[in-house]
Design brief:
It is a single chain. The chain has 8 helices and 18 strands. By secondary structure, it is an alpha/beta fold. It has 2 domains: 178 residues, 4-Layer Sandwich (Metallo-beta-lactamase, Chain A); 133 residues, Rossmann fold (3-Layer(aba) Sandwich), CATH 3.40.50. The chain has a 7-stranded mixed beta sheet, with helices on one face. Strands 1-2-3-4-5-6 form a 6-stranded mixed beta sheet. Strands 13-14-12-15-16 form a 5-stranded parallel beta sheet. β9 and β10 form a beta hairpin. The chain is globular, with a radius of gyration of 21 Å.
Length: 370
């Protein structure tokens, strides 16, 4: 692959520094882009991540040996300069920049280019080589303004409340749930109830310094010793798996929604069995992906975790040295599927799309350069 980065059975490897990035098998030293389970695996000897990511990893993985690194504060291991930079994906997520003898590579992890108000905002980094996710790497995926989507969710909740119904939304415990909580509380939605898995993550993030609105405790399960009654017409945030469970049924009559980039596809909404789908993703969309790849100025681009072959072919046709990078990150929390296996109704590379985004002519980037 390259002298600075190569692929081994354990994952992406930097031989000069003798460490791995988001490895999927246990290794001695791991740099971790963010705390989602498909990137932050158990069993490594030592972890290096941002403060927020390390806090969530300790909550999820138990006792681990790890150190945190602030954004933009480089460390040198052997002769490789390593630094973390905001990825905008979820709180604590990072791009990882590696520089050695004038050569620079950036591993994006998962990222999005719109500011969600909680994660440190993404900024492209100039580099010679760029490893990019492409979860939604097809022209059909173009996100609406997230502020408008949050307004739509708030209006949906008000309509349900007027009909005497609770509003349940499937949202992943790290990232999407906090984004919805902050955005909807600011719009006067109340009460907001969250599943225990979400609230446990909220507590970790609050302890690590992230300001989040307070939530209302859920009611106890119905039974002979009934607990507190369910709050009237709440908005409820829960992991997708909890939407069809006894925990969800305690709220009585309810409408079910789901917030994800995959809600852009009608078939996926049907398979989820939800009444309302909201297109809100923590991953970059097609225009953002094209703008980012151009802004890095990278001579070599490797696409992973998504529509890898379609993206590589698109950029090869633009004269970029691009290729798919087959990885084993596992099940992605946004897609609910293994990488490189998007839902069956996702357009294929040969499926006609609304149009084809061209990379911007101006490939300038911030001064965070080589």
């Amino acid at each position: 692959m390259d002298a600075l980065l190569t692929l081994r059975p354990e994952g992406l490897y930097c031989p000069a520094a003798d460490l791995f990035i988001d490895p999927w098998r246990p290794v001695a030293r791991a740099l971790v882009t963010h705390a989602h389970a498909d990137h932050a695996r158990p069993g490594h000897g030592r972890y290096l991540a941002t403060k927020l990511s390390l806090a969530v990893m300790r909550h999820r993985l138990g006792t681990i040996r790890g150190e945190s690194l602030d954004y933009g504060s480089p460390v040198t291991i052997n002769d490789v300069e390593i630094s973390f930079h905001p990825a905008g994906h979820v709180p604590g997520s990072a791009q990882i920049r590696l520089a050695r003898r004038g050569e620079v590579w950036v591993v994006s992890g998962d990222y999005k280019t719109t500011d969600d108000g909680l994660s440190a905002p993404f900024a492209p980094l100039r580099c010679h080589g760029f490893v990019s996710e492409c979860t939604f790497g097809l022209p059909v995926f173009r996100w609406p303004d997230p502020e408008i989507v949050l307004d739509e969710i708030a209006a949906w909740w008000r309509g349900n409340a007027a009909a005497g119904k609770a509003s349940l939304i499937g949202a992943y415990a790290l990232g999407k749930a906090q984004r919805l909580l902050a955005g909807l509380a600011a719009r006067g939605v109340a009460p907001i109830v969250v599943h225990g898995a979400v609230e446990a993550t909220n507590a970790v993030l609050r302890d690590a310094g992230l300001a989040l609105p307070e939530t209302t405790p859920p009611p106890a399960l119905a039974g002979p010793r009934r607990g507190a009654p369910a709050p009237e017409t709440p908005l409820v945030l829960a992991p997708p798996a909890a939407l069809d469970s006894a925990w969800a049924r305690r709220f009585g009559p309810a409408e079910i929604g789901f917030a994800s980039g995959w809600m852009a596809l009608r078939g996926h909404r049907r398979r989820r069995g939800v009444g309302r789908g909201f297109v809100l993703s923590d991953h970059v969309d097609w225009p953002g992906l094209c703008e980012t790849v151009a802004a890095t100025g990278a001579e070599r681009v490797l696409f992973t975790h998504g529509t890898t072959h379609a993206c590589a072919r698109f950029w090869q046709e633009k004269g970029v040295d691009a290729a798919p990078l087959e990885t084993r990150f596992g099940t992605d929390p946004e897609t609910g599927a293994a990488p490189d296996t998007p839902p069956s109704d996702t357009p294929t590379p040969d499926t006609p799309a609304p149009d084809t985004a061209e990379p911007p002519a101006d490939t300038s980037a911030p001064e965070d350069a080589r």
